[in-house]
Amino acid sequence: MIDRRHIGHTMPAFTVPVEAGRLRFFAKATGQADPVYGDPAAARDAGHRDLPVPPTFLFCLEMDGPNPGAIRELLGLDYRRLLHGEQQFTYHAPACAGDVLRFEQRIEDIYDKKNGALEFVVRSTRVSNQHGALVAELRSVTVQRNG
Q1: What is the pLDDT of residues 101-131, one digit of tens each?
Q2: 114: how many CB neighbours lie within 10 A of its CB?
Q3: Is 62 strand, coil or helix?
Q4: 101 burial class (0-12, 13-18, 19+ CB within 10 angstroms)?
Q5: Which of 8, 51, 77, 103 is the most exposed place for a label (fewest CB within 10 A)?
């Protein structure tokens, strides 16, 4: 069983720069046809400061932290038995190329279902920009299959 004493645990915050080349690559890979995701002039014409961060790209940036497996290691999760159960994004402000985003991760909950056959870890991440403004809140659920 995953130790519930880790509920409320916060990981060290980290920052990640938002690079235009990565935004273009992600937009192309995910089929974003809107020119605002690849052309800075089109982005500015649409009211953005620069290329905007495409939907779900914050998850990619979160994986750029110093140790993307830190929570898994802390909890002793077996990577071979893990499933990505859920991902949620709540956006508060736009992020664009040139921003530096700060990620603050917290273990919100740990619970089980089916008499422990499935264990769930709920992680929340607060994302703010270089000015301290809240950009987004991320929520993910990892499922560990036991038995």
Answers
A1: 999 999 999 999 999 999 999 999 999 999 9
A2: 10
A3: helix
A4: buried
A5: 8
Q: Is 49 helix (H, G, I), strand (E, B) or coil?
A: coil
Q: What is the rounded CA–CA span in Å between residue 107 and residue 142?
A: 11
Handedness of CA 133, 135, 137, 142 (dihedral sign): negative
8-state DSSP, 99:
-
Q: Taking the model in full, what pTM does it have? A: 0.93
Question: What type of residue sits at position 141?
Answer: V
Domains of the chain, earliest start first: 4-145 (3.10.129.10)
Would you put residue 52 in left (φ > 0), alpha (ψ -120 to 50) or beta? Answer: beta
Strand order in the sheet with 134-145: 14-17, 100-113, 118-128, 134-145, 82-91
